[in-house]
Design brief:
- With 465 residues, the protein is an alpha/beta fold.
- An 8-stranded mixed beta sheet has the order 3-2-1-4-7-6-8-5, sandwiched between helices.
- Helix 2 packs across helix 3 and helix 11 runs parallel beside helix 12.
- It starts with 7 loop residues before the first helix and ends with a helix.
- The C terminus is likely disordered.
Length: 465
């Protein structure tokens, strides 16, 4: 059972949110009362933290490109384990208002190479999702157990998964989760089983790589795909190699069921329950490693839909940071100081730095246009030159590292999308501002992502190519 002290439900209660607003109001009051001191100090600290955050993430990416720490299991080794020696695997498939991709779900997860008598597939459907339930009646779902999740709040994916895992009679010794549009590597479950047999006992989770089957649909999907390739193919392996906390992806994370119970399952109030679970794994002494097996998903090709999804992720990163910084001394004891600092940089710092981008760029434009006194006040010489380093060094460095990454990760055709990455940064900034707003006013609202915008037939052709 999840410790209430590690849940966003208690960490983001009214008292906490009021305290955060009080701190914000205090900062604003100091700036108004002592503009010549507070404003430049605040800008200097923010710019310094931004620079350190950017350098750390880029170094992690370069480290991951140079020396991958992914766990690899060959096809032959995966198939060598006799069916009789494979553990029972519980596969969770949470869906909500997604009738249009039911067939794609069955074609993807339905192609897993695993003995049927060792596979326990739960399709989790909310009781008010009549459209998806109707779509199921039109499909052949042999071997999949349909579970109707009773209505309760919050209506979130982790809530549905926790309900599925609480059902009596489950036999799974291993558990994983897939999203409705996922097309996993057919041998992924077998690879995970073999990997766990080879790895030390403190490895509690294997996160498979995530990618996109509609990468070339438009510029947005190219940016999204490039970002995922860098995150799962380079950054997270480097984070694990540095023995830091690995925030999980929302799908294709594999773990022994006993480990899932040990860490308390998913936090139903955290809208990035995956990242939060990765932190709790580390706090309980478990390592998370990256499995070199890919699951293809559908990249958001619609801008509004993308902002809805990304703002939810960013809100969840902020939730995760706040929850685990609730008792910072305890966090430092459990994961170490370096890992605690990097945890902040890999969660809440991502939306905060992205929001800073828009603020800094807007300030620069205002300065160029009118050179107002207020801007001069915020940027005395030391702060000005630090921000100049950010603009002239950090941004080009991120572009350069992005170009290196697309080549090193086998996607040289994305070079032009990497050069246009500043456009993606602008979109991320808007999503970050929305996330901060929702953190205060709709902290537990799960903003649903619309799937099925890519033709499933086209997707299957691209996967098989």
């Amino acid at each position: 059972m999840l410790d209430p002290q590690l849940s966003a439900r208690t960490a983001l209660g009214t008292r906490t949110l009021l305290a955060m607003l009080l701190v914000l109001a205090t900062v604003v009051a100091l700036i108004v009362a002592y503009p010549h001191i507070a404003a430049p100090v605040l800008t200097l600290v923010a710019a310094a933290l931004y620079l350190v955050s950017t350098i750390d993430r880029n170094l992690l990416m370069l480290r991951g490109i140079r020396s991958s720490a992914m766990v690899s299991v060959s096809d032959a080794d995966a198939l060598a384990v006799p069916d009789s020696e494979l553990p029972v695997y519980t596969v969770l498939l949470p869906v909500y208002h997604e009738p249009e991709i039911m067939q794609n779900l069955l074609d993807g997860v339905g192609n897993l190479d695993y003995p049927p008598d060792k596979l326990e597939v739960l399709l989790l459907v909310e009781d008010d999702d009549i459209a998806t339930q109707a779509a199921l009646h039109l499909l052949r779902i042999s071997g999949i157990r349909v579970v109707i999740v009773p209505h309760s709040l919050p209506k979130t994916k982790p809530k549905a998964c926790n309900y599925g895992m609480s059902l009596p009679g489950l036999r799974g010794e291993m558990v994983t989760i897939y999203d409705a549009e996922d097309i996993p590597d057919p041998l992924q479950l077998r690879r995970a089983v073999v990997a766990f047999q080879r790895l030390p006992e403190d490895v509690g989770c294997l996160q498979a790589r995530l990618g996109y089957f509609n990468e070339n649909q438009n510029l947005l999907t190219r940016w999204f795909s490039m970002e995922y390739d860098q995150w799962f193919g380079a950054v997270l392996p480097a984070v694990e190699q540095a023995r830091s906390v690995v925030p999980l992806g929302g799908t294709s994370n594999h773990m022994p069921t006993r480990v899932w119970h040990d860490v308390g399952g998913w936090d139903e109030h955290n809208v990035t329950e995956d990242a939060d679970l990765g932190v709790r794994l580390a706090r309980n002494g478990y390592r998370t490693m990256i499995l070199d097996s890919i699951t293809l998903e559908e990249a958001n090709s619609d801008l509004i839909n993308w902002i809805r999804q990304r703002s939810r992720w960013y809100k969840g990163y902020l939730q995760t940071m706040i929850v685990h910084l609730r008792h910072p001394a305890q966090l430092r004891r459990e994961v170490g100081l370096k890992s605690a600092l990097r945890l902040v940089n890999m969660t809440g710092a991502i939306p905060l730095t992205n929001a800073s981008n828009l603020l800094l760029w807007s300030t620069m434009v205002i300065w160029i246009v009118g050179r107002p006194q207020a801007v001069s006040l915020m940027f005395p010489p030391l702060t000005y030159y630090l921000c100049l380093v950010l603009f002239l060094v950090a941004a080009p460095m991120s572009l350069f590292v992005g170009l290196i990454a697309v080549v090193a990760l086998g996607k040289p055709h994305l070079w032009w999308a990497a050069l246009l990455a500043p456009g993606y940064w602008v979109l991320q900034s808007f999503a970050a501002f929305k996330a901060v707003y929702q953190l205060f006013f709709r902290p537990f609202y799960w903003e649903k992502t619309v799937h099925g915008l890519t033709n499933p037939t086209t997707a299957r052709v691209q996967v098989n190519a």
